[in-house]
Design brief:
elongated, alpha+beta, 5-stranded mixed sheet, Jelly Rolls, 33% helix, 4-stranded antiparallel sheet, 224 residues
């Protein structure tokens, strides 16, 4: 089997300052051509544990999602941190992270770093697809080494807060995807209306021309 075309066209560097942790956020919309795999590099701090979370969604409503697959590969441990389910046009991911990662989006191409348990039939329908995805990196807040009721309660509260934060981020991503879809649909509507307007104007000129031709023909016919 020939090697899939892998396009590593963009470098995303997500760095967290060890002493002043902040949230790093990136959102992109990419066109993945048929048979192509586009990969993006992520780099996080090695000195502390972080959380990588995000989501993706295919923006083409008129196409089937089966050729699309998303994989996040841990380059430090040579393991796969996330892989999308087959036939899903959207997905969420969230995992602890430290070091360098590679996010790959494929359209009808074999999954990169594929293992024997992940092999499936490659679906390629020769259609390009536009994928929008968002990635967030923020530090993993851990409790102190002191074991006690307050520490356990704090850890439980932080865990619950993290889950709620993840759900809220996913909701915000969904809103952004809907905005992108709405913008694409409005562009299609505007183009369609413009074509209808041009065709209507052309029809009007044709009708006027035909009417004038008939008038001149009748005048010429009656004058003879």
């Amino acid at each position: 089997m020939p090697m899939p075309f892998v396009c590593k066209s963009l470098l995303i560097t997500l760095l967290l300052c060890a002493h002043h942790p902040i949230l790093t956020y990136s959102s992109l919309s990419v066109l993945v051509t048929s048979g192509e795999t586009r990969c993006f590099f992520l780099s996080t701090s090695k000195n502390e544990q972080n959380i990588i979370s995000g989501s993706y969604e295919m923006l083409d409503d008129d196409l089937l999602p089966h050729p699309i697959h998303v994989t996040i590969y841990n380059k430090e441990t040579d393991t796969i941190s996330y892989t999308s389910r087959k036939g899903r046009p959207e997905g969420l991911f969230r995992f602890n992270a430290s070091g360098k990662y590679e996010l790959c989006i494929g359209n009808g191409s074999p999954r990169p770093h594929e293992t024997s348990t992940m092999k499936d039939d490659v679906v390629n329908d020769d259609h390009d697809r536009r994928i929008m995805f968002s990635i967030r990196v923020h530090p993993l807040y851990e409790g102190t080494d002191v074991v006690g009721p307050m520490t356990k309660r704090t850890a439980s509260t932080l865990e619950l807060t993290g889950r709620l934060r993840g759900e809220l981020e996913a909701l915000l991503d969904r809103v952004e995807y809907l905005k992108s879809r709405d913008a694409a649909h409005m562009n299609i509507v505007d183009n369609t209306l413009w074509l209808v307007l041009k065709w209507t104007i052309l029809e009007a000129f044709l009708l006027v021309g035909i009417s004038l031709g008939q008038v001149f023909y009748l005048r010429k016919l009656l004058s003879t």
